[in-house]
């Protein structure tokens, strides 16, 4: 088992080596403004048996949990996903299908608690190249924390439990099983905040601590992120050693923000409105010149990636008409889960929901003229633009009170830019892969993330109140329908009886008249 | 049984003196004027629809038309039309619309080809109108001009024209039903059998017309080959066996055999080509459909409640809701699922009671009443389903033409 703790500060902040003291297996430092990432790497045979059996039968498993509270991210830990619980499952060879499919959902429930999946075949949806995907909302990691304590903290004292408890404040948690190296990597990220630099190593682990910040040396290429700071291996080093490196990163910061909310009144066909701060592609992206319109379109475009729970869905046929899309500031629907039943109510839909990738279309029009910063600032409020994504609600199960509330997570919004020719992206220490949307782009796409800002409150979730059948008042429905139908039937039958009694069922006078004329 | 005292003379047929024809009379005097106007109306809507589609985010074309044309495109590539989600019709419709899938590269020609389905439906409208005119003339013994006046309710109806030019297939249905009625009234049994079989394959519900037509086709009307009415050999009332035997006439058997053969052979052919998805989408879907969206039927809310009650969570809620139900209800009634017996009043009325009472008196009116009952008591009543009534619209006003007590009763039933 190996552990890696990284404090990442912003550009310009750095810590002098003298401010950090390494003492035996403990490192101590001052309060810093940083994001913290903890990564635990566990070999397959160190895992509990049921987990071992499950993972051995897969070709990889990737679980990503993102909290609903908005957080600030720091380069290079920038990759974002809609808040909730995501599972990505590469294709399973048919021979071991049974083992994996039988126990996957049961294991997820055991570890995470309230996971309402019934099996990969029913609840999961497929991504390109046979990968399977699952998503649901999960607000807290408390069940996972309890499970982890039971598994990892036996007889280790309170420090292990305390560290696991701190997960309740984490911004995201990634659990990735790498089948080629047979290791499980658990990565937790805490948001950018003031915190004390402090870590203690455990006898069982090899702990590496890094206190880093982004750096921009002269030799940095546009596609690279530069890092510099201090590295220490606890128990081995007596003082931190300075380090500096750069790597090509697929996740960058677009340095703009967006918010999402439903246009009201919502009705049965709510429209999600995204309000974005900036129309231009990110400054360091391959196409800085907006005047070069053709280039910009082909190299960089804004996208929204939505993971919609099964209560709400997008209609791909509606989103296929160019005129309609243009009126909503959308370019195209680039991907949607197939198939999406357009008619079924929510309670007969077994899948978790659908994933949708929409390309947005910033309106041309006002461009900041020249390079004057002041003029740009004044026109910043004119830079704002909105895109609307029309969605549709499924009928929900009846509920007491006549209303149900559904929650839809914020999408992940980013500018996807095709990297320049010859740029490679070898694996990097902070790489985040298997996010779901990265499977929908070419391997050389760079994602410039737009920061989500909650429209109301602190949560990156939009709520909708949906009218449903009021169960409290539905007692008479069955009897009432029967009575209405019976009344109608009896009335019509009575009228017909009247006709029959008067004239019989024969043709009546007309035919008699014809006969008489013969 | 007194003779109706107020049978109006076919006064409208006595045309005003040719020297001073009113504008309206002269319009209906020549068939060309009416049909040309109807055709021009549809052409105008078609062209307007093309303009609206190209210039507005809100489209004129019906979503169903996009479903049909997508399915036709699949068929043109040799695939099954059921690849298109929500295509729940017979493959013949996709075959009919194959020209819409052709691409020549020339934009104007492509648009014209894509709209060829709408043109087909609009043309079907006109044919249906012509058949309507013939049926009116024959069944009410009115002259052609008067029949055209009533047929104009269908032909010059903007709603009907819009439905066809938007790309809804109900025009084809109208032509089928009117052709069936016309064939029956002309005593052309083979044709009627073919049309009935095809109609049921196309849309299922025309089977309700079978009882009415069969009941109408009695010996007196059809003329048995052995001559007119035979005087009854005895004064006793014939036994029910004899009555049953008398009911099964050769003509009725012919109708039943031909329609059944047509229906079965079409189904077998489609099943052979497209397999189980054909059965699933064209027929079985209508048995298990759970529409409680856009459903105007009285069973709407009951369907919602019942379908949601299957899930455990909702079942608890439903059980809790069932508690306040009145305790005076018999336990059997309380547990009875209303929607599962919905077909009983529906079929009893549309297939048994109405034909029995009315078919011999006035076949078109009876078919209208049947359709009305079928649609009203159906579990699902979307706006498309209610369009089944439209071809019959000219008939209620025509009751005023030759007012009889029977038809007065019919009017009461309609209301």
UniProtKB/TrEMBL annotation, chain A:
Entry's Gene Ontology molecular function annotations: mannosyltransferase activity
UniProtKB keywords: Endoplasmic reticulum, Glycoprotein, GPI-anchor biosynthesis, Membrane, Transmembrane, Transmembrane helix
Topology of this chain in the membrane: Single-pass membrane protein; Single-pass type III membrane protein
Cleavable signal peptide: none
Pathway: Glycolipid biosynthesis; glycosylphosphatidylinositol-anchor biosynthesis
Main localization of the protein described in the UniProt heading: endoplasmic reticulum
InterPro entries reported in the protein's UniProt record: Pbn1, PIG-X/PBN1
One of the GO biological process terms: GPI anchor biosynthetic process
Any single Gene Ontology cellular-component annotation: endoplasmic reticulum membrane
Family per record: Belongs to the PIGX family.
Record's function text: Required for proper folding and/or the stability of a subset of proteins in the endoplasmic reticulum. Component of glycosylphosphatidylinositol-mannosyltransferase 1 which transfers the first of the 4 mannoses in the GPI-anchor precursors during GPI-anchor biosynthesis. Probably acts by stabilizing the mannosyltransferase GPI14.
Protein name stated in the entry: Protein PBN1
Organism, as annotated: Thermothielavioides terrestris (strain ATCC 38088 / NRRL 8126) (Thielavia terrestris)
TrEMBL record, chain B:
UniProt pathway: Glycolipid biosynthesis; glycosylphosphatidylinositol-anchor biosynthesis
Assigned keywords, A-Z: Endoplasmic reticulum, Glycosyltransferase, GPI-anchor biosynthesis, Membrane, Transferase, Transmembrane, Transmembrane helix
Positions in coiled-coil regions: none
GO molecular function: alpha-1,4-mannosyltransferase activity; GPI mannosyltransferase activity
Cellular-component GO terms for this entry: endoplasmic reticulum membrane; glycosylphosphatidylinositol-mannosyltransferase I complex
Bilayer topology term: Multi-pass membrane protein
Cellular location(s): Endoplasmic reticulum membrane
Keyword presence, Transferase: yes
EC number(s) on file: 2.4.1.-
Membrane-spanning ranges: 195-216, 253-274
Origin superkingdom: Eukaryota
EC top class, as a word: transferase
InterPro entries: PIG-M (IPR007704)
GO biological process: GPI anchor biosynthetic process
Job of this protein: Mannosyltransferase involved in glycosylphosphatidylinositol-anchor biosynthesis. Transfers the first alpha-1,4-mannose to GlcN-acyl-PI during GPI precursor assembly. Required for cell wall integrity.
PANTHER family for this protein: GPI MANNOSYLTRANSFERASE 1, PIG-M MANNOSYLTRANSFERASE
Protein family per UniProt: Belongs to the PIGM family.
Name the record gives this protein: GPI mannosyltransferase 1
Taxonomic lineage of the native organism: Eukaryota, Fungi, Dikarya, Ascomycota, Pezizomycotina
């Amino acid at each position: 088992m190996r552990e890696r703790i990284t404090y990442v500060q912003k550009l310009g902040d750095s810590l002098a080596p003298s401010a950090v003291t390494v003492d035996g297996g403990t490192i101590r430092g001052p309060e810093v403004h940083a994001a913290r990432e903890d990564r635990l790497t566990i070999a397959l045979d160190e895992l509990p048996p049921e987990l071992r059996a499950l993972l051995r039968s897969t070709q990889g498993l990737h679980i990503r949990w993102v909290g609903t509270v908005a957080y600030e991210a720091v380069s290079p830990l920038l990759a974002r996903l809609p808040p909730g619980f995501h599972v990505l499952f590469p294709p399973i060879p048919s021979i071991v299908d049974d083992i994996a499919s039988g126990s996957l959902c049961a294991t997820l429930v055991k570890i995470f608690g309230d996971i309402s999946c019934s099996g990969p075949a029913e609840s999961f949806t497929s991504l390109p190249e046979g990968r399977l995907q699952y998503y649901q909302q999960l607000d807290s990691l408390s069940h996972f924390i309890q499970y982890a304590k039971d598994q990892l903290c036996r007889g280790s004292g309170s420090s292990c439990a305390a560290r696991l408890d701190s997960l309740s404040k984490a911004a995201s948690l990634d659990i990735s099983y790498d089948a080629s190296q047979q290791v499980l990597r658990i990565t937790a990220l805490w948001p950018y905040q003031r915190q004390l630099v402090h870590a203690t190593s455990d006898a069982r682990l090899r702990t590496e601590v890094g206190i880093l910040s982004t750096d921009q040396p002269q030799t940095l290429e546009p596609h690279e992120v530069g890092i510099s700071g201090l590295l220490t291996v606890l128990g081995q080093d007596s003082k931190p050693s300075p380090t500096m490196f750069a790597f090509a990163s697929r996740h960058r910061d677009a340095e703009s923000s967006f918010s999402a909310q439903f246009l009201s009144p919502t009705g049965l066909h709510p429209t999600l409105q995204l309000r974005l701060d900036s129309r231009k592609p990110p400054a360091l992206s391959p196409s800085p010149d907006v005047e070069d319109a053709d280039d910009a379109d082909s190299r960089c475009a804004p996208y929204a990636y939505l993971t919609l729970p099964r209560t709400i869905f997008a209609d791909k046929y509606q989103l296929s008409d160019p005129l309609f899309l243009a009126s909503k500031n959308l370019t195209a629907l680039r991907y949607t889960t197939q198939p999406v039943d357009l008619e079924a109510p929510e309670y007969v839909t077994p899948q978790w929901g659908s994933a949708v990738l929409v390309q947005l279309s910033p309106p041309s029009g006002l461009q900041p003229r020249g390079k004057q910063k002041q003029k740009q600032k004044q026109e910043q409020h004119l830079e704002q633009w909105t895109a609307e994504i029309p969605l549709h609600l499924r009928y929900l199960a009846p509920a007491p009170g006549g209303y149900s509330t559904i929650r839809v997570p914020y999408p992940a919004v980013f500018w996807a830019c095709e990297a320049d020719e010859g740029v490679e992206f070898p694996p990097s220490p902070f790489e985040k892969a298997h996010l779901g949307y990265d499977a929908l782009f070419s391997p050389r796409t760079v994602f410039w993330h737009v920061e989500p800002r909650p429209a109301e409150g602190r949560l990156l979730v939009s709520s909708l109140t949906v009218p449903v059948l009021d169960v409290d008042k539905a007692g008479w429905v069955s009897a009432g329908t029967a009575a209405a139908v019976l009344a109608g039937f009896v009335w019509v039958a009575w009228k017909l009886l009247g006709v029959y009694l008067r004239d019989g069922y024969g043709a009546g006078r007309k035919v008699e008249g014809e006969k008489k004329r013969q | 049984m007194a003779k109706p005292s107020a049978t109006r003379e076919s006064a409208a047929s006595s045309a005003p003196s040719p020297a001073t024809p009113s504008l309206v009379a002269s319009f209906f005097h020549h068939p060309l004027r009416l049909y040309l106007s109807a055709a021009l109306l549809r052409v105008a809507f078609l062209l307007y629809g093309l303009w609206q589609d190209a210039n507005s985010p809100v489209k004129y074309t019906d979503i169903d038309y996009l479903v049909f044309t997508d399915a036709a495109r699949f068929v043109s590539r040799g695939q099954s039309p059921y690849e298109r989600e929500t295509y729940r019709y017979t493959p013949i419709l996709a075959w009919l619309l194959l020209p819409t899938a052709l691409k020549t590269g020339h934009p104007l020609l492509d648009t014209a080809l894509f709209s060829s389905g709408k043109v087909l439906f609009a043309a079907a409208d006109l044919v249906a109108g012509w058949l309507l005119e013939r049926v009116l003339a024959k069944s009410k013994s009115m002259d052609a001009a008067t029949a055209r006046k009533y047929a104009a309710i269908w032909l010059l109806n903007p709603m009907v024209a819009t439905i066809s030019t938007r790309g809804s297939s109900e025009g084809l249905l109208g032509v089928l039903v009117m052709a069936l009625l016309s064939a029956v009234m002309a005593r052309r049994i083979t044709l009627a059998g073919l049309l009935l079989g095809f109609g049921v394959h196309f849309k299922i519900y025309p089977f309700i017309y079978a009882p009415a037509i069969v009941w109408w086709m009695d010996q007196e009307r059809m003329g048995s080959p052995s001559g007119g009415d035979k005087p009854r050999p005895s004064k006793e009332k014939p036994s029910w066996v004899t009555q049953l035997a008398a009911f099964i006439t050769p003509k009725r058997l012919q109708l039943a055999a031909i329609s059944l053969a047509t229906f079965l052979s079409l189904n077998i052919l489609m099943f052979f080509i497209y397999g189980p998805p054909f059965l699933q989408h064209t027929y079985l879907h209508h048995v298990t459909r759970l529409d409680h969206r856009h459903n105007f039927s009285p069973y709407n809310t009951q369907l919602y409640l019942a379908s949601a009650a299957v899930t455990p969570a909702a079942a608890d809620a439903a059980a809790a809701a069932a508690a306040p139900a009145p305790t005076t209800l018999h336990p059997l009634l309380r547990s009875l699922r209303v929607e599962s017996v919905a077909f009983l009043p529906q079929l009893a009325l549309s297939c048994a009671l109405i034909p029995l009472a009315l078919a011999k008196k006035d076949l078109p009116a009876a078919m209208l009443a049947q359709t009305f009952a079928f649609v009203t008591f159906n579990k699902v009543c979307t706006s498309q389903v209610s369009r089944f009534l439209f071809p019959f619209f000219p008939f209620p006003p025509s009751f005023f033409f030759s007012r009889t007590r029977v038809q007065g009763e019919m009017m009461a039933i309609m209301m």
